[in-house]
């Protein structure tokens, strides 16, 4: 490892910058999930790992690729800092360590409406059973259903990939800092655990199930207590173990035991491939051979594929115009590793300006959403921001806004939170926050409420 660091100074610089950022966040007790911090850390660590060049396919970036990658990050960070400055200038309050709802919110209504999202997810569960004969994890050969993009189980992907949506809706109701209704908290915690386990058994994919855990972790960070660097280190180790376990389940190590010393190298290289191939593909996409035609400009239409797919017209548009599907056929450098950072989609959808304007737009949007959590009257802004944070984490692999499942999530989040707002709950929100009574009278008012 040390030899690789000395041989590739790019990795050393990026790891050093990431370490400095982690130290500063820890010293000043900042939030690891702040959009600007999260984007910087993810990009530095991921590209630093890739530049170790454990495989020859991870070639050095061309200058144009450095401009795309660095320019995109610069514009995103500028968007974040401009919004930070505007929020502070307008007198916006800082984010609390534990968030709460600043208004009347009916948590009982929220709890029961969340089952509408669970029903949507459960349609996918039943669909998988109808095709595979059982939950995929419980079939005789799970790898049969986890490999390839054409098996019939994936017809229900829009449904069973929504487990994280269900986890999010029940998770916000699981913490005392936000929800005062005890029985709803306990029932919601059960539903969070049940949904995570059911999602894994239904389709034990790395991405889908890490979304479930990621959603819960981000909400835990804001409702129970901020994560430290030690907690993040433990989570990283868990992710690596989970990655290897699912790879073994999918048969990606063949028929050998992953503990076999003969395949120890492959066990280590497979996660590296999944990280590094995104940058292989990015560099290849912007520096393709002269005899390979460049992808057609989509005039911004394909940027809305997440919506058009749900309307059953997105796939037809891609086919008729010869655009890539979400499997990025034209820029895959290594068969089977088809992911690429979101900057490629920004380019093919909006041209060269999109590489810089789209990250700036998202920097503004994500940071504004982040600050609005401090004054939100319902959990919608928290759930929306948690979704955005997962986009940032996964932007090296997929383009969040072009995936239909996220649009479904946001629709359910808006529906449940809007309907449940402005309605008195069994136990009301803190009257001092709502503004119904003076703060000094809150103690007596709470006692009276609990004795009714």
UniProtKB/TrEMBL annotation:
Protein name, per record: Putative membrane protein
Organism per entry: Fibrobacter succinogenes (strain ATCC 19169 / S85)
Source organism, top-level taxon: Bacteria
Annotated signal sequence range: none
TM regions (residue ranges): 12-28, 37-54, 66-87, 108-133, 153-171, 183-201, 231-249, 350-368, 380-398, 404-422
Keywords: Membrane, Transmembrane, Transmembrane helix
């Amino acid at each position: 490892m040390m030899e690789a660091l000395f041989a590739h100074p790019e990795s050393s610089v990026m790891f050093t910058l990431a370490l400095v950022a982690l130290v500063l966040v820890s010293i000043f007790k900042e939030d690891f999930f702040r959009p600007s911090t999260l984007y910087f850390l993810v990009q530095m660590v991921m590209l630093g790992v890739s530049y170790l060049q454990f495989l020859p396919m991870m070639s050095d970036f061309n200058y144009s690729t450095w401009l795309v990658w660095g320019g995109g990050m610069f514009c995103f960070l500028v968007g974040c800092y401009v919004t930070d400055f505007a929020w502070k200038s307008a007198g916006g309050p800082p984010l609390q360590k534990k968030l709460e709802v600043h208004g009347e919110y009916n948590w009982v209504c929220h709890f029961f409406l969340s089952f509408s999202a669970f029903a949507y997810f459960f349609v996918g569960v039943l669909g998988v059973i109808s095709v595979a004969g059982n939950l995929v994890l419980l079939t005789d050969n799970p790898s049969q259903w986890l490999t390839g993009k054409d098996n019939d189980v994936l017809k229900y992907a829009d449904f069973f990939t929504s487990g994280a949506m269900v986890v999010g809706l029940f998770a916000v109701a699981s913490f005392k800092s936000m929800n005062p209704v005890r029985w709803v908290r306990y029932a919601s915690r059960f539903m969070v655990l049940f949904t995570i386990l059911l999602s894994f058994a239904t389709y034990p994919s790395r991405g889908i199930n890490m979304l479930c855990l990621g959603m819960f972790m981000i909400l835990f960070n804001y409702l129970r207590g901020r994560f430290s660097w030690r907690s993040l280190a433990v989570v990283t180790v868990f992710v690596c173990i989970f990655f290897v376990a699912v790879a073994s389940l999918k048969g990606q190590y063949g028929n050998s035991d992953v503990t076999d010393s003969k395949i120890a190298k492959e066990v280590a290289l497979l996660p590296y491939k999944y990280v590094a191939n995104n940058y292989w593909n990015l560099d290849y996409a912007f520096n393709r051979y002269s005899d390979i035609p460049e992808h057609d400009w989509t005039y911004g239409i394909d940027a809305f594929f997440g919506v058009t797919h749900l309307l059953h017209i997105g796939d037809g548009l891609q086919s008729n115009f010869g655009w890539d599907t979400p499997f990025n056929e034209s820029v895959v450098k290594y068969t089977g590793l088809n992911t690429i950072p979101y900057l490629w989609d920004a380019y093919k959808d909006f041209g060269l300006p999109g590489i810089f304007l789209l990250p700036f737009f998202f920097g503004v949007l994500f940071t504004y959403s982040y600050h609005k959590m401090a004054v939100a009257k319902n959990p919608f802004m928290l759930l929306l921001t948690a979704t955005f944070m997962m986009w940032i984490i996964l932007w090296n692999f997929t383009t969040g806004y072009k995936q239909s499942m996220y649009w479904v999530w946001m629709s359910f989040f808006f529906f449940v939170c809007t309907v449940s707002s402005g309605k008195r709950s069994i136990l009301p929100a803190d009257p001092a926050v709502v503004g119904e009574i003076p703060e000094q009278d809150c103690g007596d008012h709470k006692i009276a409420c609990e004795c009714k």
